[in-house]
Design brief:
There is one protein chain. This protein is an alpha/beta fold. The strands form four sheets. Strands 12, 13, 14, 15, 16, 17, 18, 21, 22 and 23 form a ten-stranded mixed β-sheet that branches. Strands 1, 2, 3, 4, 5, 6, 7, 8 and 9 form a nine-stranded mixed β-sheet that branches. The chain is elongated. It starts with 12 loop residues before the first helix and ends with a helix.
Length: 619
């Protein structure tokens, strides 16, 4: 894979200066006090790095034009269920309330109702506005509560009014895109098995003049949901599933939607994702905490929501806050003490292998492991002398591979001789950074739903070499966040969150032996390239998760510039391996990686927007 410098650029000072006002300066000082100078500087860089594709012009080119909206209005779907949109309203500024209701009236899909529970009985202006809109359109239904019941209570009151087969959740000052309900209904018509769906979203300024911070989501991602409420808006759930949950719970106030979404997806047979920006989250001073710690009650409620979810699922795990509040870490304890076989192919490279072995000995707190070194046609006396040194260690076994180099065949050979219930594939040019690395990986890998676990790999210059793989990037597959400074967290902190992905690199990958064998091991036709990606996809095909765990980090000494394919045989072999992947995995290459988003670039590794036709014209 060709590498490129794609992130870690300087601050876009002009953009930052435009954002300066007494409010943002005050907020900046509070962030500085909370995070300290070093972490604050990292976050400032991330917030004001130049956008490779600016969202403003991109969004202008992205939104459907009137021709498309009219087509949707005329379209007759095979199923057109009633969708009830539930809104808890409380002391909502009149302009915001009117714009929210107008966004429903502008929907191209007609079979909806808007159920508003008004928790401000003391506000006659708000009551008047709501009654005026309800008089205009009978689909707008209003119930004035005798008192404010809090977000959870007000939402439950709105949900009680709902008659729809499906129920959507909308905040009182936010907006739906005009095609939001149409896209939801079209997804439900296409797949009748969907019990819940969610969409992408962005933020919009108070006066609606600027859209920014698009949240382009993956398809359902359980480990990401346990790290952050990435589903958030716009969320629509089947009534029968909602009824099983019992609604919103006031004891999770501040993260009541997170708790609700967990209980919905636990009861849903199938959760769908619409990769379209259909929800606009209005930001204003009242809705944004100046101080990261000022909403600590909400972040604590989020932590408890994850804990309650794990308990219901019968999964043992410890939940903790990350430095970025609202984002969480789940640590899974190791069950028992199963054998882990570390498999390291090696040819020559005495000093490299020695650094790897010594880092394992130094950083490994887990005791039940073995190391299998697969010796592959070394020629230097140095390496054989080192092998003799290692022979005194009862944990280390040396196996000889006498055929030509074939990464897949060598590792399959190693597995046949391994005693472990868990296999840890490791390159000889990595060194362990994280103490307790095997325990962390094993805790995740032991879960019944997990097939394999990959980690964060870092170059010696402290930039990222691997933070998970995305299928389709660079043609077949590519690593994410290549060359980004390792202390950065990346787009929506994705470089630093436990999450499910389609593939991870086998430079350091733990896999259940049962998952490896069920998948048929490494495909030996892929002697050099893509063999780990292919294996991960086979494991996924068998219904197991591939988990990226950034809490394990290793240095990877691999050169930043890959050696040239410098002879005809190598070029031919590489082309054959590309062709194999294109043929075998045509489905995911054609339809897109489910853990990525179609609106993101396939030529950049940092979650940049994919440029759209018409941007130059409209931008």
């Amino acid at each position: 894979m060709d590498k490129q410098q794609n992130t870690g650029g300087g601050i876009q000072w002009g953009r930052m200066v435009k954002k300066l006002n007494p409010y943002t300066i005050r907020k900046g000082f509070r962030y500085l006090k909370h995070y300290g100078p070093k972490e604050f500087w990292i976050r400032l860089h991330e917030r004001f790095e130049p956008e490779e594709v600016p969202y403003g012009p991109w969004y202008e080119a992205y939104v459907p034009d009137e021709t498309e909206l009219n087509r949707q209005r005329r379209q007759k779907l095979s199923r057109e269920p009633l969708i009830s949109v539930a809104v808890p309203a409380y002391r909502t500024p009149g302009t915001f309330l009117a714009q929210m209701m107008d966004s429903l009236l502008a929907q191209t899909y007609r079979n909806w109702e808007l159920c508003i529970a008004n928790g401000s009985p003391e506000d006659p202006e708000m009551e008047k506005l709501l009654r005026e809109y309800a008089g205009k359109d009978k689909r707008i239904r209003v119930k004035t509560l005798s008192e404010n019941l809090g977000i959870a209570g007000n939402t439950n009151a709105a949900l009680e009014m709902a008659d729809g087969e499906f129920i959507g959740l909308l905040d009182h000052d936010d907006l739906l895109a005009p095609n939001a309900l149409y896209e939801v209904a079209a997804a439900l018509a296409k797949d009748s098995g969907l019990d819940a769906v969610y969409t992408d979203e962005d933020k919009v300024t108070t006066d609606l003049s600027e859209h920014f911070q698009p949240h382009l989501k993956p398809d359902f991602n359980l480990d990401l949901l346990r790290s952050n409420n990435y589903i958030c808006h716009f969320f629509v759930v089947r009534r029968s599933v909602f009824e099983k949950t019992g609604g919103f719970r006031s004891e999770f106030e501040g993260a009541q939607d997170y708790d609700f979404i967990f209980r919905c997806v636990e009861n849903a047979k199938k959760v769908g994702h619409i990769p379209e920006i259909l929800y606009h989250w209005r930001t204003h001073k009242e809705s944004t905490a100046d101080n990261p710690a000022s909403k600590m009650y909400a972040f604590e409620a989020g932590k408890r929501a994850i804990e309650a979810h794990l308990e219901r699922m019968g999964v043992k795990g410890t939940v903790s806050h990350t430095p970025d509040y609202g984002f969480y870490r789940v640590t899974y304890p190791v069950q028992g003490e199963p054998m882990v076989s570390i498999i390291i192919p090696n040819k020559d490279e005495k000093e490299t292998l020695k650094a790897c072995i010594e880092s394992i000995r130094e950083k490994t707190e887990y005791t039940n492991y073995e190391i299998l070194i697969i010796e592959n046609n070394s020629t230097t006396e140095d390496i054989f002398h080192y092998y003799r040194e290692l022979s005194g260690d009862p944990r280390i076994r040396l196996l000889r591979w006498k055929k030509e180099f074939n990464y897949s065949a060598i590792n399959n050979y190693g597995v046949r001789h391994a005693k472990g219930e868990y296999l840890l594939f490791l390159n000889n040019d990595v060194t362990v950074i994280t103490p307790g690395w095997i325990k962390e990986m094993l805790g995740v890998c032991q879960r019944p739903d997990t097939g394999a676990v990959g980690v964060k790999l870092i170059y010696p210059d402290n930039t990222i070499q691997h933070a998970g793989c995305v299928i389709g990037i660079g043609g077949i597959a590519g690593h994410m966040f290549v060359d980004m400074p390792a202390n950065r967290t990346g787009y929506l902190h994705k470089a630093s969150l436990l999450q499910d992905m389609s593939a991870v690199t086998a430079a350091c990958m733990m896999m259940k032996r049962s998952a490896f064998e069920e998948a048929g091991g490494f495909t030996e036709k892929l002697s050099v390239a893509f063999n780990d990606v292919d294996l991960c996809l086979k494991v996924r095909e068998n219904g197991k998760l591939i988990v990226y765990d950034p809490y394990v980090q290793l240095y990877h000494m691999e050169s930043k510039t890959r050696g040239a394919e410098d002879n005809k045989a190598k070029v031919r072999r590489f082309q054959e391996e590309i062709e194999y992947m294109r043929t075998r995995w045509i489905g995911i290459l054609k339809n897109g990686d489910p853990y990525y988003n179609k609106n993101l670039s396939l030529t950049k590794w940092n979650y940049s927007l994919r440029p759209l036709p018409g941007m130059e014209k409209k931008g």
